Automatic annotation (TrEMBL):
Residues 273-286 form the SRP54-type proteins GTP-binding domain. The gene is ftsY. It holds the Pfam family SRP54. Its main location: membrane. GO terms for cellular component: cytoplasm; plasma membrane. The keyword Nucleotide-binding applies. It is a peripheral membrane protein. It is found in: Cell membrane; Cytoplasm. Involved in targeting and insertion of nascent membrane proteins into the cytoplasmic membrane. Acts as a receptor for the complex formed by the signal recognition particle (SRP) and the ribosome-nascent chain (RNC). This is Signal recognition particle receptor FtsY. The keyword Secreted does not apply. SUPFAM superfamilies: Domain of the SRP/SRP receptor G-proteins (SSF47364), P-loop containing nucleoside triphosphate hydrolases (SSF52540).
Length: 300
């Protein structure tokens, strides 16, 4: 995140949302806790979670008889790390028990699914995995074309049908194409929100069809969220969680925002790990998420 903060050109935004200047050497007052809560809310942590974090910190300060804000920093860091690591579970790597794993990238249009599919394909290919991309956003012809271009650039095969085709069939074909040798299918899916119900049905069908070949352990639905979306991201996550059980999050466009709060809010609410963060439009701009360095960078 530090790198990302450094990329953020607006210095004011860095100071506004980072928590560097909060844990200063001054004596603890009510204003300190109010300021911390304001910063957390402004950074998209969410009102409820911000209140409960500040309440917990206040109780600790009283019980441990701490009088300087700077002495609370380490405890606050460990509170955040504990919260994140509960959701992080086995960490940020994609593990599958069978020979074929399916990564389903879901999320609203524009969140970065197609780009992330290519970035992830490149990353996993570099790790030596056999990867195939499935163009399951059959609703938008442009998404199919875009994935083909990205796939070519990454040197990864793309399984696609004509626009308007059956997205579950595309994913099915991709699984069949890799079954003999084993590997990972990364599926880009549709994200139109205006026909929300049909979209959720379409996603459920992809999941059901994949279950014909794969065990639930080998299917990894990941929600791709634009980090700028803020609190609205939670509502999106809940809607998509109804279509299939989310196993992870990827937050994109971290190069455009200094707010890290969405990560705290979503992991605490959904209890699923953040696997990667997108930090640019290029093929290489995807980084594995580490909760320790995230918290350290956030607190400065
Ligand atoms: P989709 O509709 O969910 O498939 O979204 P796309 O993959 O088409 O991405 C939408 C836009 O967001 C494109 O212009 C991407 O280049 C851009 N984008 C995706 N990820 C990132 C990121 O991490 N950082 C930045 N700056 N832009 C991104």
């Amino acid at each position: 995140l530090k790198k990302v903060f450094d990329k953020v050109k607006d210095v004011k935004a860095r100071w506004e949302y980072g928590l560097w200047n909060i844990f200063s050497d001054e004596p603890i007052t009510d204003q300190f806790f109010e300021r911390l809560e304001e910063h957390l809310i402004a950074g998209d942590v969410g009102v409820g979670l911000s209140e409960s974090l500040v309440k917990g910190l206040r109780e600790f300060a009283i019980s441990a008889k701490i009088s300087r804000a700077s002495d609370l920093r380490a405890h606050f860091a460990s509170m955040l790390k504990d919260m994140l690591s509960q959701a992080q579970g086995s960490g940020s790597s994609l593990k599958f028990s069978g020979p074929v794993g399916l990564v389903l990238l879901i999320g609203v249009n524009g969140s970065g699914k197609t780009t992330t599919a290519a970035k992830l394909a490149r990353l996993l290919k570099e790790e030596g995995r056999n990867v195939v991309l499935a163009a399951a956003d059959t609703f938008r012809a442009a998404a199919i074309d875009q994935l083909k271009v990205w796939g070519k650039r990454a040197g990864v095969r793309v399984i696609a049908q004509e626009p308007g085709g059956d997205s579950a069939a595309v994913v099915y074909d991709a699984i069949q194409s890799i079954k003999a040798v084993g590997g990972i299918v990364i599926a880009d899916t549709a994200g139109r929100l205006h026909t929300k119900h049909n979209l959720m049905e379409e996603l459920s069908k992809i999941y059901r069809v994949a279950l014909k070949d794969l065990s639930p352990d080998d299917i990894c639905p990941i929600l791709v969220v634009d980090a700028i979306t803020g609190q609205n991201a939670l509502a999106q996550a809940k809607a998509f969680n109804g279509a299939m059980p989310l196993k992870g999050l990827i937050l994109t466009k971290f190069d455009h925002t200094a707010k890290g709060g969405t990560i705290l809010a979503m992991t605490s609410e959904l209890n699923v790990p953040v696997l990667y963060v997108g930090v640019g439009e290029g093929m290489e701009d995807l980084e594995p998420f580490s909760c320790d360095s995230f918290v350290e960078d956030l607190l400065g």
